[in-house]
Write a structure and sequence with these properties.
The chain has helices at about 40-70, 80-105; strands at about 20, 30. With about 100 residues, the protein is mostly helical. The N and C termini lie far apart (about 55 Å).
């Protein structure tokens, strides 16, 4: 007959203590953790700071490119160059927004 008492040397975990995988980032947390870890919040904070830095750098690049058009392109062709540059900026931004919406949906 089998012994109904559990073996103390058994290393398998019960279902309540098994690790749970978070699908969003692939990390594992124990089922009783209940909240996000400090490391997760630090990653989001770093992400926010990097997005802010990228936004400032993008704006500075945009204004520097506009100044370069003013400097190197004659008055006659400036509106065409500005329109082309602005069109490229809008297309790149729309592509990035489209990719982010697809990932989030």
């Amino acid at each position: 007959m089998t012994d109904p008492t559990p073996d103390p040397d058994d290393t398998t975990a019960s279902p309540a203590e098994s690790p749970v995988t978070d699908d969003a980032d692939g990390t594992t947390d124990t089922a009783d953790s209940g909240g996000r870890s400090i490391a997760r919040y630090a990653q989001w904070a770093a992400f926010g700071i990097l997005v802010l830095v990228a936004l400032v750098a993008s704006l500075q690049f945009y204004f520097a490119a506009s100044a370069a058009v003013n400097e190197f392109v004659t008055r006659r062709y400036r509106p065409l160059f500005r329109a082309g540059f602005n069109l490229v900026v809008v297309l790149v931004a729309a592509t990035g927004i489209s990719l982010l919406v697809r990932r989030l949906a």
